[in-house]
Amino acid sequence: MIVALCSLKGSPGATTLAVALAAGWPSGGHPVVVECDPAGGDLLARFRLDLKPGLVTLAAAARRTAAGDTGLIWQHTQRLPGGGLPVVCGPLSAEQARAALAELAGEPGLLVQAAARPDAVVLVDCGRIGADAAALALIRAADVMLLVTGTSDDALAHLAVALPAVSRLSPRPRLVLMGEGYPTEEIVHALEIERLGVRVTGRMPYDPAGAAPLTGRPSPRSTPARSRLGQAAAALALRTAQDALIAPPEHFAGIPAPARPDIPDAWPVQQPAPTPSIDGRLP
Ligand SMILES: Nc1ncnc2c1ncn2[C@@H]1O[C@H](COP(=O)(O)OP(=O)(O)O)[C@@H](O)[C@H]1O
Ligand SMILES: [Mg+2]
């Protein structure tokens, strides 16, 4: 299965959550984190990994390899220190990341094939949803989308604006709420999330000590399995594994998304709000 993680604004903790989900994935699944952030990767620097193998070598290999190679992604992983989780790390440079993503998005089948192994769990960190069409193509190829968002006024205001488009990006659009802002029920009610077919699937605690080992900062007092964040992520991993087994809405079953005119091919570019003139009237 493929799980795409993404965010809208700021840095709510999507990459950290990708690693936490991999660390807490229920036994029987073989998770791999593929860092596809068009703004460039963070795992390389956080865990002092090498550029290669990684997303850059995977993209180059995808160009050369015949379709149907289910093992390709696994040949381009490095192991995180400590837990030994396999990751395909993105390059630091946004330019390199976008070039690699353009190659991969031409082959979203590559991820689909890798995920076709029954035990494979491909956690794709797509970074911020934005103008990058390649990252959008990867979200569309995923079984589940986890949109990670903060729970403060500003994060929720951006979420409210984006929700209708978000809801059409994936057969299973899910929200993961971060931190100690507004209560979950209030957010669900105020933003009419369920009316749009979106579901809140997890609430992660603000837990800097728990985030430390997931971001390459050693923390003698906290391991992912023991921290509040690690435990919440393990529960979310279990829910996500079960979620992917539930049939998607009928209009997504077997229909290539771009064939539907109401599903955006590209993220809608926001028109800047008209600026009121000096006397307060809109032009
Ligand atoms: N649940 C959390 N509690 C506290 N700090 C967190 C949590 N998740 C992430 N962080 C911290 O927030 C920063 C950004 O996290 P990151 O996962 O890189 O965000 P994103 O991928 O959304 O940009 C990191 O320094 C990380 O340690
Ligand atoms: Mg990130």
Keywords:
single chain, 283 residues, alpha/beta, Rossmann fold, eight-stranded mixed sheet, 10 helices, 8 strands, 34% helix, disordered C terminus, binds adenosine-5'-diphosphate, binds magnesium ion
Explain the overall architecture.
The termini are far apart. It is globular, with a radius of gyration of 19 Å. Helix content is 34%, strand content 16%. Strand 7, helix 8 and strand 8 form a beta-alpha-beta unit. Strands 3-4-2-5-1-6-7-8 form an 8-stranded mixed sheet, with helices on both faces. The longest helix is centred in the last third of the chain and has 16 residues. Helix 1 packs across helix 10 and helix 4 packs across helix 6. The C terminus is likely disordered. The chain has one domain: P-loop containing nucleotide triphosphate hydrolases (Rossmann fold). The protein is an alpha/beta fold. The protein binds adenosine-5'-diphosphate (ADP) and magnesium ion (MG). Adenosine-5'-diphosphate (ADP) binds next to helix 1 and helix 9.
Note the quaternary state here. Answer: single chain
Spatial order of the strands forming the largest sheet: 3-4-2-5-1-6-7-8
Computed Rg: 19 Å
Total helical elements: 10
Could you provide a short overview of the structure?
This protein has 283 residues and is α/β, with parallel strands linked by helices. The chain contains 10 helices and 8 strands. It has one domain: Rossmann fold, CATH 3.40.50.300.
Q: What layout of secondary structure does this protein have?
A:
Blueprint: E1 2-7, H1 14-24, E2 30-35, H2 43-46, H3 55-64, E3 78-79, E4 86-88, H4 94-105, H5 108-116, E5 120-128, H6 133-141, E6 144-150, H7 153-167, E7 173-178, H8 184-190, E8 199-204, H9 208-211, H10 228-243
Bound molecules: adenosine-5'-diphosphate and magnesium ion (MG).
Adenosine-5'-diphosphate (ADP) is lined by residues 7, 11-16, 42, 148, 204, 206-208, 211, 215, 229.
